[in-house]
């Protein structure tokens, strides 16, 4: 599995570890997290790797050689469009690993993608089968205490929260333009708490509050989830996302994360947030214009019942049953791949 130092990457926690641990604990399979050179001794039936957990194409080929010797089948999991990151904030970091991603897609007997758009994007490179394995939240990490609860809040103030990796500078600049308009029209009515998102948030914005997770959390996704659930009583999660080749393949996991802390989401009306989420039911949508976002936020500020309804519906996307369904899907795919001669 992919690690950041000694810690599982958030991708590893979300896409693999939680599901495999659940299936192991329920007696369906045995799994071990191994280095490539340890695979021969374990002689697995199926090898699953993901993202850049094997960062060099030559090491992917070494894994394939071992798999052939022990008769193992191969599943590769991908949750982001790592092939099209030239304009992304982390593009340089991933540029040297793109060959490993392409090679992984080519050699896998089956590829799991987090979204239909990502599945379509990798189609030309995949020689095996493709499956859309959607994200689900591990109930052992996220508490259900706030989920679907009615939020009264301050009727005179709408408290927004925006969280993400520090690679959303353009999305954040767009949101800042929205907040500046709102604060000019209605001073003090809208506030925004930001967690991560960008490297240098503005220092002269009275509506902005920057929240910094403790350094000891590092890259731990379970640690971050626990910390987030202890934070302020927000009213609405926001997920601005500008359309480009990388973003169009992203998943709607921000909506799930916000739902896990009892929040509805206002998201950009782009493919990641529209292919499976219903407007006014699972989340709220706004076109990627400042005017559309301003209008939608003004409307939501005066309609708390609508936000409470959507928070309740979104909470049904992050139940233990949803996670169990995701685990069962992965088990069936593993069994199917393993059964192919």
TrEMBL record:
Source superkingdom: Bacteria
List the Gene3D superfamilies hit by this protein, alphabetically. Glycogen Phosphorylase B (3.40.50.2000)
Kindly provide the name given to this protein in its UniProt entry.
Answer: Glycosyltransferase family 4 protein
């Amino acid at each position: 599995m992919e690690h950041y130092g000694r810690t599982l990457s958030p991708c590893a926690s979300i896409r693999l570890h939680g599901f495999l641990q659940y299936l192991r604990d329920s007696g369906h399979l045995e799994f071990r997290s191994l280095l490539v050179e340890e695979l021969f001794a374990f002689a697995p039936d199926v090898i699953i790797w993901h993202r850049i957990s094997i960062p060099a194409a030559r090491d992917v080929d070494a894994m394939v050689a071992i798999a052939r010797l022990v008769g193992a089948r191969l599943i590769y999991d991908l949750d982001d469009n790592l092939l099209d990151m030239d304009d992304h904030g982390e593009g340089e970091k991933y540029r040297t690993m793109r060959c490993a991603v392409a090679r992984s897609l080519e050699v896998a007997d089956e590829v799991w993608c987090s979204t239909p758009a990502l599945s379509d994007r990798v189609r030309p490179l995949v020689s095996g089968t493709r499956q859309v394995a959607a994200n689900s939240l591990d109930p052992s990490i996220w508490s259900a205490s706030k989920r679907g609860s009615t939020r009264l809040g301050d009727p005179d103030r709408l408290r927004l929260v925006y969280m993400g990796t520090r690679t959303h500078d353009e999305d954040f600049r767009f949101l800042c333009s929205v907040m500046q308009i709102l604060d000019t029209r209605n001073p003090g009515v809208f506030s925004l708490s930001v967690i991560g998102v960008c490297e240098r948030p503005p220092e002269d914005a009275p509506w902005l509050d920057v929240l910094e997770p403790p350094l000891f959390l590092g890259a731990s996704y379970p640690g971050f989830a626990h910390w987030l659930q202890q934070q302020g009583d927000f009213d609405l999660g926001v997920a601005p996302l500008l359309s480009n080749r990388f973003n169009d393949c992203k998943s709607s996991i921000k909506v799930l994360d916000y739902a896990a802390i009892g929040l509805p989401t206002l998201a950009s009306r782009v493919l990641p947030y529209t292919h499976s989420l219903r407007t006014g039911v699972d989340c709220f949508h706004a076109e990627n214009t400042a005017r559309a976002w301003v209008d939608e936020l003004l409307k939501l500020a005066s309609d708390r019942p609508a936000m409470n309804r959507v928070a309740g519906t979104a909470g049904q996307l992050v139940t233990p049953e949803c996670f169990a369904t995701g685990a069962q899907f992965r088990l069936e795919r593993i069994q199917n791949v393993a059964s192919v001669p």
